Amino acid sequence: MLNFAVASFIDMSCERYIKVLLAVLAIVCCAGSATAQIVANQRETINADSLRRDFDNQPYFGLYKDNYFIFGPAIGQKITKENTNIKFQISIAQRLTRSTLPLGTYLYLFYTQKVFWNVLENSMPMTDLNFNPGIGLAKPLFVKNRFIGKVILCLEHESNGRDGDASRSWNKISLGANILIDPMLMVHGKVWIPIVDGQNNRDILDYSGIYQVGLQAFSSNRRFNCSVTLTKRRGWNLNYNTVVEFAYRLWKRDNQFLFMQYYNGFGEGLLEYNKFHSQLRVGIVIKPRLFSDF
Q1: Of the candidates 120, 62, 144, which has an alpha carbon nearest to the alpha carbon of residue 95?
Q2: What is the full per-residue pLDDT of the chain (294 aa) written as tens digits?
Q3: C-alpha angle with apex 219: 211 to 268, nearest 5 degrees?
Q4: Which distant-in-sequence residues (6+ apart) come within 8 Å of 52 by Cβ?
Q5: Does residue 180 come out as left (phi exceeding 0), alpha (psi in the -120 to 50 range) or beta?
């Protein structure tokens, strides 16, 4: 099923492809807005029983990672049409089980798609499309009847749908966790066992990394949040890909934010995974309930 879905996306014409993406984004906006009422006070307790009911009763289809649409130039070099582009991401999750499986887990189907779009160039080419389907188990975490985060064990595939010298792909078994230290601070981490099957990206771990760590901070009214994510590239040196993000909620009861993202390092996209990028982009982001996955 995953291969069929990915192939369908690749075979679409550009015009139809954009229409489908915009339709999915519209659905995601509606789904996210319906569940966007979150903790408004930093001392509010998230009760375990109510959250378990929420997991069982929430819509099966919803957000996974951040969904954003941002635009901006390269940093530290002359700004040109080639290095100023749009980056957007669509990320959704489908819960496959009605209630918990053993160990209190839920089975999910995940799909994330990241696109780099050079809108300033002639014909406005989409230069890199990254497809990232996965299936995995998510487990909410509770301590003393309080929700403190979740753990996800996932089998992922990532590729760019190209052939020949431009083909890039790899697989990984990943284990990630998001832990709420308190209602205003979350730490997250993710490690993976890589299975590199792409002939043209055998060295991808040297650039796209072997694990990631980060933190996300919220204002007391949850209108503003910022995050830092570090992805460790393979090797003993302190070599990290760095992502810094700032988001401000546009409307008090909604989940749409003004958004700024700074990327510094390698592996931002699959096609040029081994080329250094330092890019600042701004736009809008739609965030999942409670906190973002990374």
Answers
A1: 62
A2: 434 343 443 344 444 444 544 454 444 444 444 333 433 333 344 566 666 666 666 667 889 999 999 999 999 999 999 999 999 999 999 999 987 899 989 999 999 999 999 999 999 999 999 999 999 999 999 888 888 999 999 999 999 999 999 999 999 999 999 999 998 999 999 999 999 998 999 999 999 999 999 999 999 988 999 999 999 999 999 999 999 999 999 988 888 999 999 999 999 999 999 999 999 999 999 998 777 898
A3: 30
A4: 100, 140
A5: beta
